[in-house]
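so the lab meeting is tmrw and i was supposed to have these ready like two days ago... anyway. pasting both below. for each one the top line is the aa sequence and the line under it is the structure tokens. i havent really looked at them closely yet so no promises
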Amino acid sequence: MDLQRKIGGGITKIQQSIEQGKQKLQIAQEINKCKNVIEETVEKRADVLIKLGEAIYKKIRLGEIEDPDLLSLSEVLIQLDKTLYQTKNKLEKLMEHGAEGKVCVHCRQPLSLEDRFCGACGQPVKQKEEEREQYVVCPRCEQPILQPAEFCICCGIKLA
């Protein structure tokens, strides 16, 4: 009898340990589920905030919102847009220059896209037709914009 009682007690302890292990596993699984829900929700929230910010920024650029606090915050974005625009244009010109290999027609020396005169022979450099067209300067980001544009190609504001 004593042996049966000891075995029964041992089995009971094992069953209790298994039950505690199951509970800990369930708790760990619930914790993981909660963490996953939090992570997914934070990502979705960030996406919505980005979309909201972009929508508000668009309305600011179009002059539909004139809140001073939002306007001051948008100035940082305008400067970033300006940097992005200028850098993209520079990259585009560099790639175009690399593909064309612009050289002086008189002495065959390499030229940059901005050169108006050849640095080697002093001859005038023929400019592309669109460079002679009329430009206006954006009042917000100060980028030259080919006329007749209604919106700035850099910051997107509506031009007067």
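ok protien two:
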Amino acid sequence: MATAYQERPTRHAPPPPAAAAEPSIGDLVAEIGQDLSGLVRTEIELAKAELKQESAKAGKAAGMLGGAGYAGHMVMLFGSLTAVFALAHVLDIAWAALIVTALWAAVGAALYVSGRAGWRNVHLKPEKAVESLKEDARWARHPTS
């Protein structure tokens, strides 16, 4: 017998989503470690790119300074020749050349003495950094806090 009332299939509510398991402390620490590692790698790549760009600029600047040094050398050479020929109007050319050479010898000697004295004040060992590292090592062996 057919009834006016037909049963509808009952819909069941979808099962509640599985409770998301909260990550453990170890998982969180591992995730932080991965994030830090990625951050450090990114920072290193950025530093490499910056250093590459800056070294290219430094190379160009060094080339320009080298060119300026060569041009300065040429100015000094031709200036010296001019002085020799100017003095040649008053003295014999050999004496004029000897006088200009003696002047350059005096300038060279003065620069040598000054440079040598300055070189004695150069300390290539990073004293402060070495002392700081020694202090860190002492602290690591015997922490006072």
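from a quick look at the 2nd one: The radius of gyration is 40 Å. Residues 72 and 137 are 50 Å apart (CA to CA). will dig more after coffe
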